[in-house]
Specification:
Layout: H1 3-6, H2 10-15, E1 23-28, E2 43-45, H3 60-73, E3 88-93, H4 110-122, E4 127-130, H5 139-154, E5 158-162, E6 180-186, H6 200-205, E7 207-210, E8 214-216, E9 224-226, H7 229-246, H8 252-261, H9 277-285
Parallel strand pairs: 1-3, 1-4, 2-3, 4-5, 5-6, 6-7
Antiparallel strand pairs: 8-9
Helix pairs in contact: 3-7, 4-5, 7-8, 7-9, 8-9
């Protein structure tokens, strides 16, 4: 089943491929920016200690960043979901590229994530995609991260973040923040995958999106399949970017409310409802 149909993104994508004025901050690994299936004219890099383009195509960081970028910004004729290639993709790497044989997913400290968020805000992002895992947080790091997320809220920059893949019930300093939309991975039937983290804040303010056997871009010529909450997150981010492209004058809080509440029947569970992008469009269209 097409994952775009699972969350009603297909009809929204027929209306728009996004506009370059809407900027998506991709805080992830670096991206294979010269990939032939990426809409390279819309990709920008945030100046920082790490380049936005991959130095090593074999690194986990490069593979992860390129895969997520494909979901958001691949050409519509590619095999990737290619939700909003017309939007501007702002690449701000946070994962260090390594090829030392360590196959664990790369992660970052709360302080590093907070810095990346602030840099994307200064670079003009309208929505942030956080398909990231965090190292053990320190008290100082949690405070800096919370302040960065609160600044995003004040500036009207919607934050979409992976709920995590530890099969745990609980929350994190990211998913607890009231402005963040946490995302749980679901299968083709809309059921949460076994490894997805769940919790009261995730169920109250989050969404579920496709995160099981999703096809997107690899760093080479062949596409790859992957899953998890970090893969589900850009489906929600892409929907937000399309809605902001179609309704440029709508306040961010209105867009966030529409995408979080449209098509839902209440929030009494630790499992968040399934994203319904078309219902969100209808809500905003009638506002």
């Amino acid at each position: 089943m097409n994952p775009l149909n699972t969350v009603q993104l297909s009809p929204l994508m027929q209306l728009s491929s996004g506009t370059p004025e809407i900027v998506i901050g991709l805080i992830d690994g670096p991206v294979t920016t010269n990939h032939p299936d990426l809409s390279t004219s819309s990709i920008r890099e945030v100046d920082g200690r790490m380049r936005g383009a991959c130095a090593s195509a074999s690194s986990l960081a490069c593979g992860h960043g390129t895969f997520v970028a494909g979901i958001l910004s691949a050409r519509r004729e590619s095999v990737a979901p290619a939700i909003c290639p017309g939007c501007t993709l702002l690449v701000r790497p946070i994962f260090t590229e390594t090829t030392n044989g360590d196959r664990r997913m790369p992660s970052a400290s709360p302080e590093e994530l907070a810095t990346a968020i602030l840099e994307c805000l200064e670079a003009g992002a309208h929505v942030l995609n956080l398909s990231v895992g965090l190292d053990q947080p320190s008290t100082r790091g949690q405070r800096e991260l919370e302040e960065a997320l609160s600044l995003a809220a004040r500036r009207g920059v919607i934050v979409v973040a992976a709920a995590g893949n530890q099969a745990a019930v609980g929350s994190s300093s990211i998913t607890r923040h009231a402005w963040v939309i946490p995302v749980v991975a679901c299968d083709a039937r809309g059921r949460p995958t076994d490894q997805s983290n769940l919790g009261s804040s995730i169920g109250r303010q989050g969404l579920s999106a496709p995160g099981d056997a999703v096809l997107s871009l690899g760093t080479g010529s062949k596409p790859i399949t992957a899953g998890g909450t970090s893969i589900a997150t850009p489906f929600v981010t892409g929907a937000v970017a399309l809605l902001r492209s179609l309704f440029p004058n709508a306040p961010a809080a209105q867009v966030k409310l529409a995408i979080s509440q449209a098509g839902t029947r209440g929030r009494g569970s630790i499992v968040p409802p399934l994203l319904n992008a078309w219902a969100a469009y209808q809500v905003l269209n009638q506002a």
